[in-house]
Structures are given as C-alpha cells and as structure tokens.
Amino acid sequence: MKLDGRSAIVTGGAKGIGLAIVRRLAAEGARVMIADNDEAAGAAAVESLSGTGEVLFTATDVSERLDVHNLVAKTVDAFGSINALVNNAGIVHAADFLDLEEADFDRVLAVNLKSVFLCGQAVARHMVKQIEKGEAPGSIVNMSSINDTFAIANQVPYSVSKGGVSQMTKVMALSLAQYGIRVNAIGPGSIMTDMLASVADNPDVRTRILSRTPLGRLGEPSEIASVAAFLLSADSSYVTGQTIYADGGRLPLNYTVPVKE
To answer: How far apart are CA 137 and CA 159, in angstroms?
Structure first.
C-alpha cells in the first residue's frame, strides 16, 4: 500500500470528492482525519469506513484559525504525526456580479482560499518540526478547479477563489521546497457528485456538459481520489508546484464536441 503508516488530514472530507479521497487514502494504508463542519455527515462517513482503516472525524470550520489549530492538535494526538494534507473544503454561491453581496464574497473566499492558507501553514509548520526530528517530508494537495482558468459569470467568488488556490499552490511549493515538502493541486472538471447529479439528470444540462468534455462522460469522485493518492505518494516524488487537471480533456478544448444520444 502506497501510504502505509502515514497520517493525513482531509478537509471537507465528509461527502463527495472529499469522502472519496478519504476512502482511497485509507485503502492505501493511511490513517485519516476528516475535517468538516457537517457533524452528521462526518459521523456517517466514519461509520461507512469502519473496517477500511483508521478514520476519525473532527468538527472544523476551516476558515477559523483556532479551529484549524485544534484540528492539527487532535490529529497529532490521535496519530502521532501528520504526513499529508488535502485542502478539499469548498463552497459555492451563485449571484450575478452586480448583485453579489460582500458577505457572500467573503464567505466563499474564507472557506475556499483562506482555509488553504490556514491549514497549509499550520500543517507545514508541524511537518517542519517532524523533519527536524529526522522524519521524512510530507506532501500537501490543494483542490483547485478548471475554473482557476475558466470563469462562470454567476460564480464570481468561486472562480476567484480557485484562481487563488492555484497561485497559492505555486507559492507554497516554492516556499516549502527547501524542506522537501511537496505541494500540488488538482483541477477537477465535471465530477458526478451529489451537487452535479441534481442537475445532470436534465437532458439539456447533461448535453451541454458533455459537449465540452472530449472523453464524453462525467468524471467520478474516485478518479479525483486516484490523483490525490498519486500526489501524496512517493510515485510523485519529483512533482511540486503543479496543478493536475482531471477534466476529461475540457481545458484544451477550443470548440464543442458531438454528444452521443
């Protein structure tokens, strides 16, 4: 198992892509702490993964510094170390640019971007202490999006936050390279989470999504989890500062593609 003996934190790990990542990391031998603000979903996630590996849950608001420090402390108490971090927590808020409220802009940026700074810094500081004691460097994965490059007119703070995540990834990677800590990001395309499933059942919406996806299908959360496992493992030991786009070929596409009925 590629992550045997390592311990990881996955923010936003109670549902969707985050839960798929938790499941994959646990299957690869990692001990995993789920950090999420949904306590019911967190408890259900731990229950669903019983027998898979050592998976725990800590209720966390990742946009709050004290919550993040509590998360790190609880993870160290439980596992003894932190070797991996996946900054996956994220929210959206739809509003036209002229109608967007400042509070909603701030809220999305706090969860999607500020949390990457708070969690990344707190975990990296602990990793450096571990390295000074002779332990191997760890790895950090940030969840970006193809919307770090594209933009959606009524998703202003989300698009802005994901652009920030990709740039934050580069800055973190350069800053932490001296310690051997690697930092990369994943940029998913259209992934079949509960959120997308709620609209993808509409034939017109599904056709529109697939018309911009050369592989001709929606992605699965497990496929993003596979990329995360790769970036956290020794298989990617010379990869840092990169964003890997798991998007079915959407990002390079200039025109739409035919959709099979």
So the answer is: 31
Number of domains in the chain: 1
Question: Does residue 260 belong to any structural domain of this protein?
Answer: no
By the 8 A CB rule, do 246 and 224 touch? yes
Residue 157 has pLDDT above 90, yes or no: yes
Which pLDDT score, from 0 to 100, does residue 213 have? 95
Report if residue 253 sits inside a domain.
Answer: no
In a domain, 39, yes or no: yes
Residue 261 forms part of a structural domain: no
> Which residue range(s) make up the domain with 126?
7-246
* pLDDT tier at 205, thresholds 50, 70, 90: confident
In angstroms, the CA 203 to CA 201 distance is: 6
Return all residues near 176 (Cβ < 8 A) that are at least 6 apart.
124, 140, 182, 183
Residue 130 CA to residue 53 CA, distance in Å, equals: 23
Of 158, 179, 238, 245, catalytic: 158
Residue 226: both structure tokens together: 């596979």
Let me know if 158 is a catalytic residue.
yes
CATH of the domain at 31: 3.40.50.720
What crossing angle do the helices spanning 156-176 and 115-132 adopt, rounded to 10°? 20
Q: How far apart are CA 30 and CA 8, in angstroms?
A: 7
Instruction: Please say if the pLDDT value at position 111 is more than 90.
Output: yes
Confidence band, pLDDT 50/70/90 cuts, at residue 194: confident
144 Cβ neighbours under 8 A, 6+ residues apart: 162, 165, 166, 169, 185, 186, 187, 243
